[in-house]
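Structure in, sequence out. Go:
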């Protein structure tokens, strides 16, 4: 089971490096992880792994699953107790007033003395021990309890993974919204300058009103887009606050050199990924659920078998009636065999078999979902890689075109609308690049979860990816 809360950083990472095998590949992997952690710590961005640790402490749904696991773990001692000796004690006090031939013969027309007192008090206590010698149902109940505990553990792990996905998605959305807002604010500043120039040219009689109105329209649109991006940022931060209990601050909104982004361009063969879906936590939980159903069926089948118990008891009765006084020691071996219960056992076994078949179908269903998720995320990742490559080339071309348009306007070969179009196209492509990078990051996290490999190392790599477009001067 992947422990998502664990994070290799600081002394832990140093210890891992010291204990790492001497293989070059293993050392290279650990060194790469160390570089990622250093990059995260050096960045001014909020730490994704730290936010996840906060979510582990804050999330009430996860706390609920922890308590449910602790409660389910008590099934083990409860099932084991049914195999151990059962010791019980009881006592009573009795007052009795009887009228019969022995206590009051006069009332029945007999002329003789009473042989027993009519009114008596007595004290009675007993200690009894029962030890199961053979009970298939109780033995199989212990295995069922262990299976239920295993399923509860996978449910907790699955809740942790879902929380990691939620935190990652909210974090990436917040980061993207902040970068999108930064780009729109930069575009707004450029358009405001362009508007002032157009207005000045119009006042001097060397500009036209159409260019002025076009500049104003583009500025208004940039302001509207910035308001939308600001709302998206607030929503993402609110989601992070709900999950973690704190509201992180993305102080810098600027975007660095997009060409410096280093992404994984080859994701390997699809079949290799599909062979790892058995580690998917939903599949693991379904397998544990199937084991519980099968164990429960075995418990139900044990209803056909006899039970053998050893009974030991001691009792002492002290009474005013001497004939009722006694001190007993008893030892017995009791065999019980169910012969007919109205068809209950047969129906119960059939019900268990059907539930086991349903659980088996549930395993196949989760495997199909995991396989579909892997295929979908791999297609999306490969598509994002190609789109990022194309956008990178488009941004480079748009930068050259904007410089040429601005130069052409200065020389009177192009008008202001051409410059505005070129600038709008450049900023739109930059925003598309940032959004595509965000989808790439989300797909990376989701693919790791689909094969049960979502851990703190993946979160650190996502941080490094986002830091790569974070301006160096803001780090």
């Amino acid at each position: 089971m992947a422990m998502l809360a664990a994070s290799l950083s600081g002394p832990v990472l140093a210890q891992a490096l010291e204990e790492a095998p001497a293989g070059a590949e293993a050392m290279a992997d650990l060194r790469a992880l160390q570089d990622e952690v250093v990059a995260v710590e050096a960045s001014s961005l909020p730490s994704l792994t730290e936010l996840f640790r906060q979510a582990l402490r804050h999330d009430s749904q996860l706390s609920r699953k922890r308590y449910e696991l602790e409660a389910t773990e008590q099934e083990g001692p409860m099932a084991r107790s049914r195999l151990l000796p059962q010791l019980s004690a009881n006592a009573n006090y009795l007052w009795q007033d009887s009228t019969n031939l022995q206590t009051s013969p006069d009332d029945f027309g007999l002329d003789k003395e009473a042989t027993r007192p009519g009114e008596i008090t007595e004290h009675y206590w007993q200690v009894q021990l029962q030890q199961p010698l053979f009970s298939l149902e109780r033995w199989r109940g212990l295995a069922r309890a262990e299976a239920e505990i295993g399923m509860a553990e996978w449910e907790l792990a699955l809740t942790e993974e879902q929380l990691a996905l939620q935190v990652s998605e909210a974090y990436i959305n917040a980061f993207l919204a902040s970068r999108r807002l930064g780009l729109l604010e930069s575009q707004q500043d450029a358009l405001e300058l362009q508007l002032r120039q157009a207005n000045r040219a119009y006042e001097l009689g060397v500009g036209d009103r159409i260019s002025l109105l076009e500049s104003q329209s583009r500025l208004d649109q940039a302001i509207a887009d910035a308001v939308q991006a600001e709302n998206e940022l607030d929503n993402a931060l609110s989601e992070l606050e709900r999950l973690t209990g704190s509201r992180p601050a993305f102080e810098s909104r600027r975007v660095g050199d997009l060409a410096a982004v280093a992404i994984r361009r080859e994701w390997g063969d699809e079949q290799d990924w599909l062979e790892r879906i058995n580690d998917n936590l939903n599949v693991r939980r379904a397998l544990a659920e199937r084991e519980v159903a099968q164990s429960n069926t075995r418990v139900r089948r044990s209803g056909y078998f006899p039970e053998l118990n050893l009974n030991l008891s001691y009792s002492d009765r002290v009474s005013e009636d001497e004939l009722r006084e006694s001190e007993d020691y008893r030892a017995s071996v009791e065999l019980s065999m169910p012969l007919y219960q109205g068809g209950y056992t047969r129906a119960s076994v059939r019900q268990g078999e059907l539930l086991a078949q349903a659980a088996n179908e549930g395993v196949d269903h989760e495997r199909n979902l995991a396989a579909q998720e892997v295929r979908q995320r791999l297609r999306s990742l490969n598509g994002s890689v190609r789109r990022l490559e194309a956008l990178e080339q488009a941004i480079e071309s748009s930068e050259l075109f904007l410089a040429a348009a601005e130069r052409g306007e200065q020389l009177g070969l192009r008008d202001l609308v051409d410059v505005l179009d070129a600038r709008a196209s450049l900023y739109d492509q930059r925003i598309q690049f940032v959004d595509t990078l965000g989808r790439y990051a989300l797909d990376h996290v989701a693919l790791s979860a689909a094969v049960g490999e979502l851990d703190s190392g993946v979160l650190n790599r996502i941080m490094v990816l986002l830091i790569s477009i974070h301006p160096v001067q803001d780090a």
